[in-house]
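Hi V.,

Quick status before I head out on leave. The structure for the redesign project is tokenized and pasted below; the design run finished overnight.
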């Protein structure tokens, strides 16, 4: 059951992350070619990194013909529909959160199908989830969202962990995958809405430090 679940979840994550890449490309005023390139990178980078690390070569994003057309469809959809009043840009963070959830659980499922130990499966799930966003942000010259967003990698870690725990209990793969994806998306959504964040270091500007008592 696990192996049959991997492909549809992975394809869904590919499409959603391709949407986020295309939206980022339009936001930065790239032309059609640039939008497609960012869309492809966002949708495939995490999965390619995962497959290379677990020895599933050539990576499924290259070996399976379905991945590239799905990414191109997302890129062209955003390019030709971006002018509509319900602008895609207002939903970029939600699209990214959905892609993070889908790719995190699909990456974990694939790692488990290759008989990797639990910790390695969780880490590869996180890598699959955050990899596309890193590639997308670097291509448009932004600090990757995983380094600056509230509860981004943590949400991926939580979702991947649920899938691994469900596999160990055992809980049906569909239920564990749904629960892990929902937890990841829910945490990211709440972090966006309520500005949840981990502790950080904030340097006081010299002028403000001088005025302090």
């Amino acid at each position: 059951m696990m192996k049959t679940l991997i492909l549809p979840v992975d394809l869904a994550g590919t499409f959603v992350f391709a949407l986020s890449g295309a939206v980022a490309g339009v936001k930065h005023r790239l032309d059609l070619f640039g939008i497609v390139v960012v869309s492809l990178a966002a949708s495939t980078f995490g999965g390619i990194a995962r497959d290379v690390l677990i020895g599933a070569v050539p990576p499924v994003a290259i070996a399976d013909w379905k991945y590239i057309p799905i990414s191109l469809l997302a890129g062209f959809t955003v390019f030709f529909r971006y002018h509509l009043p319900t602008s895609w840009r207002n939903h970029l963070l939600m699209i990214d959160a959905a892609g993070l959830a889908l790719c995190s659980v699909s990456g974990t499922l694939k790692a488990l199908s290759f008989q990797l130990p639990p910790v390695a499966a969780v880490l590869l799930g996180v890598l699959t989830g955050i990899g596309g966003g890193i590639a997308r942000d670097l291509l448009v010259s932004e600090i990757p969202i995983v380094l600056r967003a509230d509860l981004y990698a943590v949400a991926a870690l939580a979702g991947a962990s649920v899938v691994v725990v469900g596999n160990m209990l055992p809980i049906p793969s569909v239920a564990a995958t749904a629960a892990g994806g929902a937890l990841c998306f829910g945490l990211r959504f709440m972090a966006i809405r309520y500005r949840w964040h981990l502790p950080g270091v904030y340097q006081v500007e010299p002028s403000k430090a001088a005025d302090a008592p």
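Above is the designed sequence. The chain has one domain: 2-198.

G. will cover questions while I'm gone.

Best,
W.
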